[in-house]
Amino acid sequence: MALHPKIIDLSLDRMQRILAALGNPQDRIPPVIHIAGTNGKGSTQAMIRAGLESAGLRVHAYTSPHLAQFHERIRLAGELITETDLAAILAECEAANAGQPITFFEITTAAAFLAFSRVPADFTLLEVGLGGRLDATNVIDTPRLTVITPVSIDHTQYLGETLAEIAGEKAGILKRRTPCIVAPQDPVARAVIEEKAERLFAPLRIGRQDWDSRREGMSLIYQDDHGLMDLPLPVLPGPHQIVNAGTAIAALRELGFGRIEARAAVIEAEWPARMQRLSHGPLVEAAGQAELWLDGGHNPAGGEALAATLAGMAKKPTHLICGMLNTKDVAGYMRPLAAQVQSLTAIDIPGEPNTLPAGETARIAAETGIQATTAPDAETALRRIVAESASARVLICGSLYLAGHILRQNG
């Protein structure tokens, strides 16, 4: 973290240079499933991994950002990379980089490729960091499959101001003649993805056209041209997970798997800080009789998904503890939540230089119609809430960086 700037500088030149110095390990990793999109990348990846592992396969996985510890980013054949292996592989990448400019994400992605190249596995799940076209992960010439989850407005300072521009960046992971699973999209985003795929002769399997997933009662119904599957609801909560589950199942079907793997995908996936109920630890003890939940969504689409999840839960007074980055559309995130919550307590994200000051977060929340105040930290906010509403639902939200801090604080 001290050696390399934690900045976003979308370019592949530095990545190609360090990979060449390392002997191009990205060309020696197991078949790649490359996943891009604005929301749902991590959940979809977790479901695909659960499905593949249920078939007895070994799966590498790369994801970002990490929550509680860096090792979460690199999973080798099902297990998080060890401290010893991580330290050794980072040192090797530092030596190969030879002091030249490179970002934090670039050199750690190079480290992941090096680790993946040395451990046998059946598949590699590769999650895009930001965008797609110029993301550090986009150096795989012939992936087995690409996946694009729902595209919406986010990171406009890097990816473009319009949905079409952002979709164009996400579609940058498409490769010639490589099939792509596409989640249901806004028509503007879909048109951009289809146009790019046509130029590359990349076959698309598009949600609500070639496959569909929906909830019926307590079942997830998945349907494509191979038939219909009646499955349990996803273990990951929220209506948006129906779409993510459908995307994951469509990917598994494209890879030749069936009902057993699809069922495992929806009931065995684990993905922290996505509407996660905290069940033990010091913060749970501080909550007393109150429910304590954690979610890392941070953009308008994330706010809409969270609001829909809350609307489908048992009615209970719901209070938010919220910390956000100063690069986000805070009002866009909060607007959908206003009808579902009683209050918001704003906090700074500890140790994060780009945190939005708590006072500013509270001011924006109030403008969207949420009763808002501030607190110095999450535990203080939690104790204040439960002192007034002992059996409330308390949801800590607004940022994956805050979610990671909470998971560490809660042990």
From TrEMBL:
Listed pathway(s): Cofactor biosynthesis; tetrahydrofolylpolyglutamate biosynthesis; Cofactor biosynthesis; tetrahydrofolate biosynthesis; 7,8-dihydrofolate from 2-amino-4-hydroxy-6-hydroxymethyl-7,8-dihydropteridine diphosphate and 4-aminobenzoate: step 2/2
Keyword terms of this UniProt record: ATP-binding, Folate biosynthesis, Ligase, Magnesium, Metal-binding, Nucleotide-binding
Stored InterPro entries: Folylpolyglutamate_synth, Folylpolyglutamate_synth_CS, Mur-like_cat_sf, Mur_ligase_C, Mur_ligase_C_dom_sf, Mur_ligase_cen
Domain annotation Mur ligase central: ranges: 35-251
EC number(s) given by UniProt: 6.3.2.12, 6.3.2.17
Reaction catalysed by this enzyme: (6R)-5,10-methylenetetrahydrofolyl-(gamma-L-Glu)(n) + L-glutamate + ATP = (6R)-5,10-methylenetetrahydrofolyl-(gamma-L-Glu)(n+1) + ADP + phosphate + H(+); 7,8-dihydropteroate + L-glutamate + ATP = 7,8-dihydrofolate + ADP + phosphate + H(+); 10-formyltetrahydrofolyl-(gamma-L-Glu)(n) + L-glutamate + ATP = 10-formyltetrahydrofolyl-(gamma-L-Glu)(n+1) + ADP + phosphate + H(+); (6S)-5,6,7,8-tetrahydrofolyl-(gamma-L-Glu)(n) + L-glutamate + ATP = (6S)-5,6,7,8-tetrahydrofolyl-(gamma-L-Glu)(n+1) + ADP + phosphate + H(+)
GO molecular function: ligase activity
Superkingdom in the source lineage: Bacteria
Domain Mur ligase C-terminal: 284-399
Function: Functions in two distinct reactions of the de novo folate biosynthetic pathway. Catalyzes the addition of a glutamate residue to dihydropteroate (7,8-dihydropteroate or H2Pte) to form dihydrofolate (7,8-dihydrofolate monoglutamate or H2Pte-Glu). Also catalyzes successive additions of L-glutamate to tetrahydrofolate or 10-formyltetrahydrofolate or 5,10-methylenetetrahydrofolate, leading to folylpolyglutamate derivatives.
Annotated family: Belongs to the folylpolyglutamate synthase family.
Protein's name in the database: Dihydrofolate synthase/folylpolyglutamate synthase
